[in-house]
Amino acid sequence: MAYDPRMNYDPTRKLTDGDVLEQKPEGWWGDAGKLYRDFPFPTFMDGMNFALKVAQQAEERGHHPDIHVHYHFVRVNYFTYDAGGVTRLDLESAQALNDLLGEGTPA
């Protein structure tokens, strides 16, 4: 979505499903008003260490995802509760996780 000065940029404004699908970072999915990704790991402890990195980054950014650890993978869900859906802040946070893993820019 291109910036439109008439819209008053607000990173906490709920995005449409189309906006989310168009702008989501590589590897991420949008479903039921959430942005999520499953990160696979060879061991449980590798997943736990990643979950801690996610938590540290979230604390630094001031925007916290839901983190679910399932043995060999970690699911990260972004959803802005105050907005009732995915916001620009969620997309930026998801991209920051990709950057943390060295995965570069969105597709």
Poorly predicted regions are: none
Count of helical segments?
Answer: 3
- Percentage beta strand: 15-25%
- Silhouette: globular
Structural class: alpha+beta
The amount of helix comes to 25-40%
Whole-number radius of gyration?
Answer: 14 Å
Mean pLDDT: 86
Question: Helix-strand pattern, N to C?
Answer: HEEHEEH
Strand arrangement across the biggest beta sheet: 1-2-4-3
Distance between the termini: 14 Å
Describe the structure.
The protein has 107 residues and is of the alpha+beta class. It has a single domain (13-100), classed as Gyrase A, domain 2. The chain is built from 3 helices and 4 strands, in the order αββαββα. It has a 4-stranded antiparallel β-sheet. A hairpin with a 2-residue loop joins strand 3 and strand 4 (73-78). The longest helix has 18 residues, at 44-61. The chain is globular and about 35 Å long.
Topology, element by element:
Elements: H1 17-23, E1 29-31, E2 34-40, H2 44-61, E3 66-70, E4 73-78, H3 88-100
Antiparallel strand pairs: 1-2, 2-4, 3-4
Compact overview of the structure:
By secondary structure, this protein is α+β, with helices and mostly antiparallel strands. The protein is built from 3 helices and 4 strands; from the N terminus they run αββαββα. It is globular, with a radius of gyration of 14 Å.
Main traits of this protein?
107 residues, alpha+beta, Gyrase A, domain 2, 4-stranded antiparallel beta sheet, globular
